From TrEMBL:
This is Transporter. The chain crosses the membrane at residues 117-135, 147-168, 189-217, 364-381, 393-418, 438-460, 480-500, 533-555, 576-600, 606-630, 651-670, 690-710. GO terms for biological process: amino acid transport. Belongs to the sodium:neurotransmitter symporter (SNF) (TC 2.A.22) family. Keywords: Disulfide bond, Membrane, Metal-binding, Sodium, Symport, Transmembrane, Transmembrane helix, Transport. The keyword Membrane applies.
């Protein structure tokens, strides 16, 4: 990777670092010239592209370190033949500073370019949720008015946590496990909880990418397979858009005729005749599935609640009740139709009709397992070399989605009905701001979109140069993430407006959230466009690249953490470790590739990271802001950037951000059943299994705390002091260079 710059140097190491950097505070790191013998040690040249992580232990010395009137002892040239850290400790009043010359045996890579880091962070934050969840959440919670709570939650909740993780990773130069011995050792269980959550995510998230891969290969045909019915997987209820319109209009006429011919008594009163005439003249444009489903449509709702009761106002209540009951009975016997796109997803890609849910999921679907295997292969060859390989891949996976989004936007806004869809997306409903649920949805969307707490931001920023401006990076990448969500809303709603016009429906009837939006609704819209094959290919390529970036980040967080924590057993064998890790995750993910795998995917999404990550991040924030301390954390940032964070950030870190997390956690716990959805009723045993899954990661925190307490020597009071006290820190250095700074 790229070479870490040497910074400002002095001609004399003994001067105590009197270069331009000494204008900063005494506790900031300063660079001096390497000793003349450093080159003989092999630390320049081939090792120049690496950086040294903090050791977290008291440094080994060469026997010359000590105190001599506040002057630094000259370093012995003979020590260059060893691989130990050389340090000199100075005593100046109550402050203890150290000088460290580091050799090249223990090395840490850095990003070869700043752009690679930014693309990696953007790629992780901008995921499938930006496309399939934000547009739905936005229009459901007040359209343009939703942007107010969204931006407020970004500023006071999401962005401070995002900035925190980037700064922590860059300063301490290690992953989510090793970092805790420098912050609050008793909370190291947070790191293990994060690793377990990342495994759960890898088990289902890659399967969703596999669905997109399946669609991509299916798109390479003269006609998209979900355009028409008549395929082997289609049922008799399958009907394309025009067929559904004709069938529905026919059903209204049939309903009117049936009403007139089956109830002579009602006909005599004239009540049923009036109702039948209304049905016969109506132009219902939706298939009838159930009474509850029916009443969601404004046309039918008006018929049954306004038009028909007004016509029947002169009849007795018993007659009205009998006629309305009869109308509902006949109407709900109409055809239950499904689109070719829905049947392709449910009956061809998933084949979920062969399963009855979690009780019987069926065997693994080979074609789907092969697609997911291909995803794991791509992930392996992107991560096996660390930032050297990942840094090259993100140029494609992070930039390609933006190219495709802009192309789809240009196509979408030219479709008939697109303006109506965008208007529906942006029109503010100010009264919604009085609903607390809107604010909670805004907070949840910000949190899960930016992704603090998954260990990814820590891992990615740990490969930065020490003086990189992580504050500016946090502002830039989080802003791009939110703007991408907003842009995706235009892409989605322009197409939904087009579909609503073609199908003569309201946008509410057309739209779905979640996987249904990108695997049913949008593909159906693409099938109606000219050049549908091209649009389908680029759309699913976009989904694949969006998903890959996020899975890169989650897995890299765990890999970095374990390599840093166990450098001799895992760190030296990274390529083999990544291979074994991905192989095990793939085997564990096989149940998500069965015929009932879609139910397990949703189940893992809710009970794997969905609830646990909120608690884990709350504990992480408490550990950093309350135990380690906002003042100390601010001083760390000052050492990197040359100035402390403003009062705004310190208040957010100490009070607002933890409150932000606590509120999301409580409301998520209260509404966890809504997170599972209503289409499938999960069995009772699965709920118990789900909470067990959630607790498996959450309990890592108290379990490790108990272990740490029992392992630490001393009496009870001494143990409590030690397990909360950060271990001494050796400053980050470049091989062969000297750094001075405050020992903590």
């Amino acid at each position: 990777m790229g070479t870490e710059p040497t910074g400002t140097t002095n001609s004399s190491a003994g001067s105590g670092g009197s270069g331009s950097r000494t204008a900063r505070k005494r506790d900031s790191w300063h660079t001096t010239s390497p000793p003349p013998s450093a080159g003989a040690n092999g630390t320049s040249g081939g090792d120049a592209g690496h950086d040294e992580p903090p050791d977290g232990r008291e440094p080994a010395t060469n026997g010359n370190s000590g105190v001599d009137g506040g002057k630094k002892q000259p370093l012995s040239a003979s020590t260059t033949a060893t691989t130990e850290t050389m340090a000199q400790v100075l005593q100046s009043g109550k402050e203890r500073s150290m000088v460290v010359a580091l050799t090249g045996e223990r090395r840490r890579e850095t990003w070869s370019q700043k752009a690679e880091f930014l693309l990696a962070v953007i790629g992780f934050a901008v995921d499938l949720g930006n496309v399939w969840r934000f547009p739905y959440i936005c229009y459901q919670n007040g359209g343009g008015a939703f942007l107010i709570p969204y931006c407020i939650m970004l500023l006071f909740g999401g962005l401070p946590l995002f900035y925190m993780e980037l700064a922590l990773g860059q300063f301490h130069r290690c992953g989510c496990l090793s970092i805790w011995k420098r912050i609050c050792p008793v909370l190291k269980g947070v790191g293990y909880a994060i690793c377990l959550i990342d495994i759960y995510m890898g088990m289902y998230y890659n399967t969703i990418i596999g669905w997109a891969v399946y669609y991509l290969f299916a798109s390479f045909s003269s006609e998209l397979p979900w355009t028409k019915c008549g395929n082997p997987w289609n049922t008799d209820a399958c009907s394309p858009v025009t067929g559904r319109l004709n069938a529905t209009l026919t059903s209204t006429t049939t309903a009117a005729t049936t009403l007139l011919s089956t109830n002579a008594a009602s006909t005599a009163t004239g009540a049923t005749a009036l109702v039948a005439s209304v049905l016969g003249n109506s132009t219902l444009a939706t298939p009838f599935a159930s009474t509850a489903h029916q009443l969601h449509y404004h046309h039918e709702h008006n018929l049954l609640t306004s038009t028909i009761p007004t016509m029947l106002s002169n009849f007795s209540s018993s007659t009205v009740a009998a006629v309305v009951s009869e109308v509902v009975g006949v109407v709900t016997e109409g055809p239950v139709l499904s689109s070719p796109a829905r049947e392709f997803f449910e009956r061809q890609v998933l084949e979920q009709y062969k399963s009855n849910g979690l009780d019987f999921m069926g065997p693994v679907k080979p074609s789907l397992a092969l697609c997911v295997f291909g995803v794991f292969v791509l992930v392996y060859f992107s991560l096996w070399k660390g930032v050297r390989s990942a840094g090259k891949v993100v140029w494609v996976t992070a930039l390609a989605p933006y190219v495709v989004l802009l192309i789809l936007l240009a196509r979408g806004v030219t479709l008939p009905g697109a303006a109506e869809g965008i208007r529906y997306y942006l029109t503010p409903q100010w009264n919604k701001l009085n609903n607390s649920r809107v604010w909670i949805d805004a907070a949840s969307q910000i949190f899960f979109s930016l992704g603090p707490g998954f260990g990814t931001l820590l891992a990615l920023s740990s490969y930065n140069k020490f003086n990189n401006n992580c504050y500016r990076d946090a502002l830039l990448t989080s802003s791009i993430n939110c703007l991408t969500s907003f842009l995706a809303g235009f892409v989605i709603f322009s197409v939904l407006g087009y579909m609503a016009q073609v199908q003569n429906k309201s946008i509410e009837e057309v739209g779905l959230e979640g996987p249904g939006l990108v695997f049913i609704v949008y593909p159906e819209a693409i099938a109606m466009m000219k050049g549908s094959v091209f649009w389908s290919i680029i759309f699913f390529l976009m989904l694949i690249t969006l998903g890959l970036d996020s899975t890169f980040g989650g897995l890299e967080a765990m890999i970095t953490a374990l390599c840093d924590e166990y450098p001799r057993t895992i760190g030296r064998r990274r390529e083999l470790f990544v291979l074994i890790l991905l192989g095990l995750i793939y085997i564990c993910a096989l149940p998500t590739m069965t015929y009932g795998g879609v139910y397990l995917v949703n189940f893992l999404n809710v009970y794997g990271p969905g609830l646990a990550i909120l608690f884990v991040v709350f504990v992480e924030a408490a550990g950093v802001f309350w135990f380690y301390g906002v003042d100390k954390f601010s001083s760390d940032i000052e050492q990197m950037l040359g100035k402390k964070p403003s009062l705004f950030w310190r208040i957010c870190w100490k009070y607002i951000s933890p409150t932000f997390l606590f509120c999301i956690l409580i409301f998520s716990l209260l509404g966890y059943e809504d997170m599972l959805g209503e289409e499938y009723k999960y069995p009772e045993w699965s709920v118990a299994a789900g909470w067990t899954l959630t607790l498996s990661s959450v309990l890592c925190i108290p379990t490790y705390a108990i272990f740490k307490f029992l392992k630490t020597p001393g009496n009870c009071r001494e143990r409590l002091i030690l397990i909360f006290k950060p271990e001494p820190l050796i400053p980050t250095a470049i091989p062969g260079q000297l750094y001075t700074g405050t020992s903590v």
